[in-house]
Amino acid sequence: MAAAAVPQDIARRAVEWMVELQSPPVPDELLREWQQWLTSHPDHQRAWQRIEAVNDRLRGLGAGQQHPAPALTAALLAPRGSRGRRQAVKALSLAIFTGTLAWTAEEHLPWRAWSADERTGPGQRRRVALADGTRVALNTASAFDVAIDGAARRLRLHAGELLITTAPDTAGRPLLVHTAQGVLETLAASSARFAVRLYPHATQVSVFDGEVALRPASLAASSVLQAGQQALFGAAAVMPTLAADEDSVAWIDGFLIAKAMRLDAFVAELERYSDIALGCAPAVAGLRVSGSFRLDDIGRVLETLAATLTLDIETTTRFFGHWRSGIRLAPRP
Questions:
Q1: pLDDT, tens digit, 9 for 90 and up, residues 143-162
Q2: How far is CA 225 from the centre of its chain?
Q3: Contact (Cβ atoms closer than 8 angstroms) between residue 185 and residue 198
Q4: 66, 97, 122, 181: which has the fewest C-beta neighbours closer than 10 Å?
């Protein structure tokens, strides 16, 4: 029977259970009550299977990125028993049991990354040499496709970040890098070294050697970045040029370098390399972080931050068809 046939009251109760089991602490008694509810009627099991199926689809589409539904976020943040939580649960049950949540995810998450020619998972980094001699380094959770023919050398970045080093092409072919926001181009007769990073609605380009032309998808004119310049662009605009920072690609050597970075921004950057959720309490989000941190030991980085900034490391566990863990930096009592 289709998931849409699950009675509305049961669907909403299933979502209430999902939210309760993701809101720590989860007492053993609450888990037993959920198990009793789950096994008491076939409709309960079908409702829960629908929730697990949507959750698995979101994780699969995410390619290592987390995009929580706004309704789920609202439900988790609202106090237990509050009107706000009841409204959020209602919205979330509608999204899950009508397919809206899965459809929205498929529209926005980089599912093509799973079938890309070259890719990395969370915490992985790779270097590849293309047939034309171009060298490409992939940062964590990155993916791109390659197409080289007699007219051009084309890369299409689906997710993450690349550091690209080109050489003059004897066949006279330009190197084109396509993203969701537009296209980058290096001339065939020159070499260049530049980084390309995808954000949800923008592409960032940092040029370290040579020059790179960028053209937003909705504009006819191109802008040229010289060595030492960086710019962020969307489909219809290019932001003002800034100075490129070589430290931003320290990941190529396994490091994350911070210079007076806010703690919340640093933790968000560090989370890109982790297979579990990382966060910090709002009360300490504005603390500043400086230093060079090795990316091959996330736990050691968190311990260093806790010791340096006098913080506690909290471990959270939530249940969503399976147990998932997260780590949060919080003030010491």
A1: 999 999 888 999 999 989 99
A2: 26
A3: no
A4: 66
